[in-house]
Structure formats: structure tokens, C-alpha cells
Amino acid sequence: MAEVEEQGRNLSEESTDESEEEDTEEEPKLKYERLTNGVTEILQKDAASCMTVHDKFLALGTHFGKVYLLDIQGNVTQKFEISPVKINQISLDESGDHVGICSEDGKVQVFGLYTREGFHENFDCPIKVVALHPQFSKSNNKQFVTGGNKLLLYERNWLNRWKTSVLHEGEGNITNVKWRANLIAWANNVGVKIYDISSKQRITNVLRDNTNLRPDMYPCSLCWKDNTTLIIGWGSSVKICVVKERDPTEMRDLPSRYVEIVSAFETEFFISGLAPLADQLVTLYYVKDSSEHMEEEFRTRPRLDIIQSLPEGCEEISSDALTVRNFQENQCRDYRLEHSEGESLFYIISPKDIVVAKERDQDDHIDWLLEKKKYEEALMAAEISFRNIKRHDVQKIGMAYINHLVERGDYDAAARKCQKVLGKNMDLWENEVYRFKTIGQLKAISQYLPRGDLRLRPAIYEMILHEFLKTDYEGFATLIREWPGELYNNMAIVQAVNEHLKKDPTNSMLLTTLAELYTYDQRYDRALEIYLKLRHKDVYQLIHKHNLFSAIKDKIVLLMDFDKEKAVDMLLDNDDKISMDKVVEELKDRPELLHVYLHKLFKRDHHKGQKYHERQISLYAEYDRPNLLPFLRESMHCPLEKALEICQQRHFVEETVFLLSRMGNCRRALQMIMEELADVDKAIEFAKEQDDRELWDDLISYSIDKPPFITGLLNNIGTHVDPILLIHRIKEGMEIPNLRDSLVKILQDYNLQILLREGCKKILVADSLSLLQRMHRTQKRGVRVDEENICESCHTPILPSDTAQAFGVVVFHCRHMFHKECLPSPGNVPGIQYCNICSAKRRGPGSGILEMKK
């Protein structure tokens, strides 16, 4: 709902109902401004009666019989004194070179704006309408129509005279006429007719619906949407008519064209004007409302609506009530709606006011969004259409959005928008930072500050860090981790942190942050000390990243205390930087840590730390006995005597047994197993490992008076020693547990051995036969001898150059070849010769012979 202001801008929110204004949030489709300049002065002294719009200019007729040509800003360019009474209608051709004017006193003038040619006629009745042929400028289209009590067509013939034809009469005054291409539409008291100028036929008659309304008070509105579509508005009724070509088979005596009403609907108010807008319709309404609840100043304001026509009705798209001057005194016939086809401009003409309605552009859309405080949508619209907007700047809209968020208290959102809006403008960034400092919200903007190639002054970053250091240690630590060290003066921040540590020296968060600052400053030794003091997990990463191995040579114990596994792995992986001897030296007073280091070293390489194997024996015995025996088994460098001494001192029986057996004292080892461990299974296993007949005799001798041991021997001895030896030595009458089962097992083991031997024999015989057959087939094959082969004795070609002469060649199965005369005499066995080369293998692959004679 809009009031058109003198300044040229429509205030579209003024409404007849305040509650309606509060509820509506729809954006208006049109914007309004008054036509001012010369028009204002004209309408102060006179009143507008009609107006015609051309793409180049406007033509305004007044009640005092004057016609003004205006530019689109309302400035007067020409003035014509036509009549002392009201100008009823002005018509222009498409070129804008000719104008037709009619007045209430019956005068009709048609003349060229830039030529002297013209038509002047006075009628004895008021002439209400005039319309020029759209192509009037062309010599063969010098036609126009006038309408009073009848519709007359004027045509100029070849003698340059005007010929008059009556197109229609007898149905009252002609109130409106519109000419488009070859079609003339006019309205009288009965209805609307359409005349085809090319076929000289009237093709339709559309009757008016509401005959109760006076035609002079509620005149018909006509508008051509295109060359074949006519829009009729009369009273509260709208009809959309389409002129179509008739099928030739249906013509008979009918016109070649006919009209189809494609849409018809009723409106809420009375129609004063119509104009097309793409596929929609712009309607000017006269509102006749005498509701008691409505104040006098808001009654009967005209409305400009955009509607969408439907086959059986219409849909309202937008509606604006216009407060034009003296609207309280106007009637339906006092309003007119004209439009410019070149642009979407609509002119609302009333006696004392002319208002221009325009489609809203992107700038207007942004204005409305800003007015409704929809800043985010406004910013998005400006970014999308930044090439098309003229009055707005994307950054200024963004700044308005930021200001709005700050005023609303949404500081985080405001700071987040700074990143997008401020972009690379460092001055704006600094201004915003100081503003956020003023309102105590530096924390909100800190995470969005530029930190890449474009940066603010170091003082800005330092100011924010000091703010965090005062109030939020955790936030301070986060910024130090996220911000590159080049953004600020590192030494100044280190000094500030140290000042805070004087008050709270054990604060782990501050200490960690200080270590990070030292790291940025490449003072890695100071950072390493703090990390070790705090047992921080990043200490190993720091050492590797900055190659600080020289700095940790005297801190190995601290590293081991923190995490033995990681420390040892690091030391072993970098033994070229920290020698093994240095590590052992540092850990000599911490044998438990030394053992961990040497144990992992031994696991990686059994020979690398061989000089420490003697020391490792006591370390394993003290801290890791389960790994002592595996160490003794795998080490080739530990002194056995020293190891035996330690194991005997600590009564490590299993380790002592292993050492005794390794030193060759197997009897003593077996004795310890039997006496100390009393484990016949281990004793038998030990005897099997040594595979010594004397050990078996000792084991039998020791076990002969111990029935449980005898049972164990009977169950396991069968595959290693003849069981009869044991059975013969068992005393008569001795009770042996499970003797029967043991004897059965001995017999089963014996049978199994027999079966295995027979199976192996069969396999051996079959394999021998198969290999013999293969060798026989191989030796039966011929051997190719050609000129490339040489004698292995004289190293000359094996075949003579003249093969016609007699020659002899000997070829062994090993593929060595000799001239017969080059072979030595046969050996002890007559008729058998051996290859000289392979003779070391006596009766090897060269034992056979092939002889070639010719």
C-alpha cells in the first residue's frame, strides 16, 4: 500500500488498515514516483484529461484544450493550443511523427510533428475518440478513425483528398477506440466491436455484462496485448479475446476471422484501465467504498493490481493503493492507465496527478530487504547481481549486516561475516577489531582474523593475545597453536607468559604454551626442558622434527622415565646420532632402564651389543628371568662360566641345566633334572635332544628303582633305545603303574616302525626304477653333431672340412665330444672309455659312450 511522495519515490507501506500493514511481508512488485517538473506546474493551473505514451515522449491533454509534449521526466518540449475546452483523446502512430487530437467541442486535428501536412475538421458534436493507423507515416496507410455518435474512417486517396466511411453508428456514443495492425477495436453503449481493415469486415461484437452502469461514468477500457489479443475491462468485468483465422471450409458468408474469449472473470472493484505485463495483467481500479470504519482520507483511493488471468478466474499477484492528489473528488472516468511497450512503465493519469509505476529492479529488491532488516538475503542478492546493481555496494551492505548483528548482540555471527565482507581491506579489518575491543568482544573476532598472505599489523594480534592471556588461558593456547608465529612479536608474548608464570609457576597450560612459543622462536632446548618437565606427549615429535638428538644426550634418563618404549625405539632408530656406548653410560646408574634398552637392542640384532652380553646376564637374572633362558640360547657371545656361576648362585635350575649341557657336562645336567626338578618328561626330552647312548643308560640307572620314572621311560623310550634293555633291568616283583598300557604302547610303536620301514622301502624301490628308466631313455637319444661343435681335446672342429674322408668321433653322454684319435687308450676295463673332463666323477654322467664312425 503506497503513497506517492513529491520527492519521486512511492512509500508503499501506507495502508488503509494498520493491522494489514503489520501482517504483510510480501515484497511489492512495482515502485512508484510522481511525474514532476513541467507537469507539476501544468496541473496546478489546469487538469489532465488524457495522455498517450510513446517510447520517445509523452503527449498530455488538458481540460483547457491544450496539448503538451513532454519528455519522460515530465519536462515540456512543445505546447499546442487546440481548443478552449477539454481534450478527449490523443493518438500517436508507431513512429511518433504524427499525432491525432480530438476535443469536446468537436474539433479533430491530425498533423505531423515535424511536417506541415495535416487534417483539421470541426464536427457538430463532441468527438470522444481518435486513433491513427499504426503505420500512418507511410503514404499507403494514411488512415485514422474518429468517434462521436458514430465511428468514421478517414482515408487519403491518390488525389490527396480525404475519403470518409462510416464503420458503425446507431448504438450511442463511441467511448473508446484502439487500433493495432489491421484491427480496430471500439466500444459504445452496447458493447465492443472489432473491425478488420484489410478485409473490411466487422468480425465480432462483445456485449457488455453490467448494463446497469452508466457508460459515461464507467467507460470501457481497451488494450491490445499483441496483434491478435484484446483485453476488455468494463465495470468489474474483464474479458480476454483472441482473434483467430477461420477454417476456409467453414467460411461460407462468414468473416475470415473470428474472436474467441479465452478468459473472463469478475473483479472486486471498477476498472479504470488495463495494461499487459508479460503474461500477467496490470489493472487500475476505482474503489467505491463507503465503509463507516474507514476514515474519509483513505476512501476511494485508486488501486493498481497485478493479476494472473486463469481460464475461469484470476489470481492476485500484488496490490497497491495509491494516494494521488484529490483522489477523494475523482470518479471512475477520471482515471486512465497508459503503458510504454518499450519499457515496463505504467502511467496512472488523474486530473491533478500523474504517477509512474515501474517494475522493481535488483536495487529496489535490496532496498526492501534492508528496510525489512533481512540483511543476509540482501547481501546474497547483491553478491549474485553485483554487475547489475547501480545504487548499492556489496561491501556496504555487508557492513550494514555486521552492524545489525552487533546491535543485536550476535557477536560470533558478526565476526564470522567479517571474514566474507571485509575481504582484503586491511583498514576495515583494523577498524572492526578496535570496535570489537571497545565492546569487549575481541574473543569473538579472533578466530576469523586474516592470517595468510594478507595480514594485519602485529600490534593487532598482540592486543588480542594479551586479552586472552588475561582472561582465558585455554583460548590463548589455542590461538598460539593456530596462528603462525610470524603474525606477532614472539619475544613480547614470551615475556608476557613468563610474567604470568611468576604468579602460577606450575600452570601446565601456560608451560605448554611457552614451550610452543620457544619452538616458534627456534629455542628448542628451552622447549624440550619444559616438555620433559611436563611429560608432554609431543616431546618425541619435537626431537624428531628439529633433530634435537644432541640436546638429549644428557636427558636420556628423563626420556626413559617418561616413556620407556618410545624412548628406546627412538634411541635405537637413531644410534648414528646417539651412540650405544653413550646410552649405556647414561643408564649405568639405572640398571632397570639399562636392561630395557639392552634387551630391545638384543632383539633387533644379536651381535650388535655383544660386548654387553656379560652384563646382560645379571640384568636378566635380576629384572627379567623369563627372558634369561632365551637370551642364553640365542647369544653366541656371553661367557658360559660367568652365566653358570650366576645361575647357580640364584638356583636357576633350567638355566643351569642348559649351560651344563652347552658346556658338555650332560650327565651333571641330567642329574640336576632328575634330582632338582624330578621331572622324568624333561629328562627324557633332554636325553632325546642330546641323542647320547650313555645318557640313556644313566637315565635308566637313575630311574630303575623309581616306578613312576620307569612308566615314563616305557612310554617314550621305544623309538630311541631298545626297550628290552630297560625291561631286563627291572627287578622282579616291582610294581610299576600302568605297566600293561606301557608294554602295549611299546609293541604298537615297534609295529609302526616296521610299517614305516616297509613303506619307505617300497617308495625307494619305485623311485629307483623310475629314475633308471628315465636315464635309459635319455641315453638312447641321439646327439646332434655339426660344424659348430669342437673337440674338447684339440679344440678343433669336430667334423672335418671334407666329410668324404673317413673320420671317427666319440660323443659322451655328458655331451663332451672328442676325435677318436684324441682320446687316450681305454682303461683297465677293455672296451670302456671315460670322458677326460668328467673322469673325476668315475662312472658319472660321462660313463657311457656314443661312437660315430664313417
TrEMBL record:
GO terms for cellular component: clathrin-coated vesicle; cytosol; early endosome membrane; Golgi apparatus; HOPS complex; late endosome membrane; lysosomal membrane. It comes from Cyprinus carpio carpio. The keyword Cell membrane does not apply. One of its GO terms (molecular function) is zinc ion binding. It is a peripheral membrane protein. Residues 791-839 form the RING-type domain. PROSITE patterns: CHCR (PS50236), ZF_RING_2 (PS50089). It is found in: Cytoplasm, Cytosol; Early endosome membrane; Endosome membrane; Late endosome membrane. CHCR repeats lie at residues 568-712. Its main location: cytoplasm. Coiled coil: none annotated. This is Vacuolar protein sorting-associated protein 41 homolog. Keywords: Autophagy, Cytoplasm, Cytoplasmic vesicle, Endosome, Golgi apparatus, Lysosome, Membrane, Metal-binding, Protein transport, Transport, Zinc, Zinc-finger. Belongs to the VPS41 family. Residues 1-31 are annotated as: Disordered. One of its GO terms (biological process) is macroautophagy. Residues 1-12 have a biased composition (Basic and acidic residues). It comes from the Eukaryota. Plays a role in vesicle-mediated protein trafficking to lysosomal compartments including the endocytic membrane transport pathways. Residues 14-26 have a biased composition (Acidic residues). It holds the Pfam family zf-RING_Vps41.
